[in-house]
């Protein structure tokens, strides 16, 4: 009980020893947390550790979704949990995930996003969308469910978000030949 508080250098040395031990076992194909279990399919962890991590990520995802209106797509009403994603309303998700990741790519930023949202008190600027609505929003700047009147919202990088009215396609066919339908 109690015990003396360790100094910063002692904690740093202890962390380095722990990291070295994890690297040692991972290099030998064993779980970095349980050196007696083999790592699963080329990962650094055993199946039990992967399962625990997956379950923890699902709990975080459910917790975040409840704070942003529940496990339902904000656009189309999809309720299948596996299809739902957390969307950045301002379309700045890629840069945000790169900042959160440890190696500067988006690869591990997605799982860290839910932890970040919880730690920062559920900030504004997020919504729950299904994968289809999120992808449609990414491609054309607006969800396909919100497109009306035969208008297509062209991809932002190519047409700067201009609206193209396909009812007038016959009149301006030569101007929109770059679409490959």
Q: What would you note in describing this structure?
A:
This protein has 181 residues and is mainly α. It has two domains: 15-45, no CATH class; 46-174, no CATH class. 41% of the residues lie in helices and 9% in strands. The chain has six helices and four strands; from the N terminus they run H-H-E-H-H-E-H-E-H-E. The strands form two sheets. A two-stranded antiparallel sheet has the order 1-2. Helix 2 crosses helix 4 (109-119) and helix 3 packs across helix 4. It is elongated, with a radius of gyration of 23 Å. It starts with 7 loop residues before the first helix and ends in a 16-residue tail after the last strand. Residues 153-164 and 176-181 have low confidence and may be disordered.
Give a short synopsis of this structure.
The protein is mainly α and 181 residues long.
Largest sheet: 2 strands, antiparallel
Q: What's the SSE pattern? A: HHEHHEHEHE
Question: What does the average pLDDT come to?
Answer: 77
As residue ranges, the low-confidence spans are 153-164, 176-181
Q: Helix segment count?
A: 6
Distance between the termini: 71 Å
């Amino acid at each position: 009980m109690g015990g003396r508080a360790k100094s910063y250098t002692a904690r740093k040395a202890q962390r380095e020893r722990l990291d070295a031990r994890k690297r040692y076992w991972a290099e030998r194909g064993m779980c970095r947390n349980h050196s007696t279990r083999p790592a699963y399919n080329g990962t650094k962890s055993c199946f039990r550790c992967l399962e625990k991590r997956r379950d923890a990520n699902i709990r975080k995802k459910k917790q975040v979704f409840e704070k942003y209106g529940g496990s339902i797509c904000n656009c189309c009403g999809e309720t299948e949990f596996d299809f739902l994603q957390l969307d950045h309303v301002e379309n700045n998700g890629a840069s945000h995930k790169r900042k959160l990741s440890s190696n500067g790519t988006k690869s591990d930023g997605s799982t860290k996003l839910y932890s970040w949202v919880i730690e920062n008190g559920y900030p504004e600027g997020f919504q729950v969308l299904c994968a289809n609505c999120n992808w449609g929003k990414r491609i054309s700047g607006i969800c396909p469910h919100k497109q009306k009147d035969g208008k297509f919202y062209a991809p932002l990088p190519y047409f700067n978000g201009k609206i193209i009215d396909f009812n007038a396609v016959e009149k301006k066919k030569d101007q929109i030949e770059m679409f490959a339908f």
